[in-house]
């Protein structure tokens, strides 16, 4: 389908916050426009003259897109070079006098054009007039979205376990989470429908939520990935209840097939960049006929977090208001970052970038497989259903102490822990049956106020003492209001505790050693 055959975004300006509505263009904008006139002598803007920048030229060596990321770094002969010069004489060099100067707040035009084509080809948005605006990574991008849409005390729809930095933006505004239950694919459409259909009864006199925050690929923390059918269902519910979907998707390239416990070290077969692009689950943009999706994409996880670069894909009204905010909040992402990433993408080309993403995905899949296999082999691991990682309906792996004879396990015997092997991203989420821990039972018997939190804090400390560091699960419980301070009051089932493993950083062999240490602590703290 050609872009022009698609509808334009509908008017969604009623979602704008009072702050966003009242923003006005930077007065400097008119000056910048006039400066483009041929022959103009500008004594208007406070631009430093580029001759006074201390930089003369720069060269950045990069891997080729098809670099084998599982082996040693590619040899110098295989590297590609990105060149930067002040007033370039070499063809293809990026002009430092432009990228290091004050620039367009939307971001460098050639970079936005590159990303527009990429978005069109790979994500195929369902409406025609979407726009691209650069931001400084999804952390900052999401903060801008909250200020674009949310009023103090609004309710924000999110997953039952959600990214704490995202919540930390809305909590000080008095906004409260509306956690939607999860299954193996992430947010459940039936529970979303139920919450919205019953809103007037459950929240009499309170404004209905109009913003959804969702991490649909490699959910942080659960590692789940939402498939196409579920996305369609969720989009239709959001269209019916007039909800804006903020799709925080830094892990979009990191999608994995299900982990095969019977072949844990199966060789990953490389795909071409084009095959890889076709294999991705569609973004919410694909179903977005209205322009109600704000897609937040980041280079952090696929190039480097220190680049502090990402981009919004959204409707023109939201893009214009986000631009007004950007003019006075950050102006633009760093010129170095924009210049280096533009040059990298132009040098690799779209097909090369897709090949890079595909190889990166393969490397993370190997790490995912390594972590799952290390956990499974350190315990007696059996298929788990219905309660895997506390996620009803998810198929996963149940862990019993190492050496337990599977034949001796009774059908209703609780495992120590369960997890669902991640299908995306960088995280593995594991749940523990705390009733199997003597110390937890003692806390309950003593009438401790929040036995889950107290036990999990002690467990986490014991792991750190044994030199293995994980993230406490309590970080990810959505904040629903000041009156809900205990773990169970914040929506977690009682008697269950969670931890999050990241498989992004340590080598598989090091992770295996970490799992050995983890298993030692578990064997001490849970009943034999
Ligand atoms: N504050 C003042 C007083 C300025 O004159 C300027 C630059 N014109 C700025 C802030 C903007 O600074 P920056 O480029 O660091 O955002
Ligand atoms: N959103 C989610 C869901 C994340 O997991 C992370 C990183 O951990 C971020 C955003 C931060 O992204 P960025 O580096 O683009 O700000």
From TrEMBL:
<dbReference type="Pfam" id="PF00155">
    <property type="entry name" value="Aminotran_1_2"/>
</dbReference>
<dbReference type="InterPro" id="IPR015421">
    <property type="entry name" value="PyrdxlP-dep_Trfase_major"/>
</dbReference>
<keyword id="KW-0663">Pyridoxal phosphate</keyword>
<dbReference type="GO" id="GO:0030170">
    <property type="term" value="F:pyridoxal phosphate binding"/>
</dbReference>
<protein>
    <recommendedName>
        <fullName>Aminotransferase class I/classII large domain-containing protein</fullName>
    </recommendedName>
</protein>
<feature type="domain" description="Aminotransferase class I/classII large">
    <location>
        <begin position="93"/>
        <end position="378"/>
    </location>
</feature>
<dbReference type="InterPro" id="IPR004839">
    <property type="entry name" value="Aminotransferase_I/II_large"/>
</dbReference>
<dbReference type="GO" id="GO:0008483">
    <property type="term" value="F:transaminase activity"/>
</dbReference>
<keyword id="KW-0808">Transferase</keyword>
<keyword id="KW-0032">Aminotransferase</keyword>
<dbReference type="GO" id="GO:1901605">
    <property type="term" value="P:alpha-amino acid metabolic process"/>
</dbReference>
<comment type="similarity">
    <text>Belongs to the class-I pyridoxal-phosphate-dependent aminotransferase family.</text>
</comment>
<dbReference type="InterPro" id="IPR050859">
    <property type="entry name" value="Class-I_PLP-dep_aminotransf"/>
</dbReference>
<dbReference type="InterPro" id="IPR015424">
    <property type="entry name" value="PyrdxlP-dep_Trfase"/>
</dbReference>
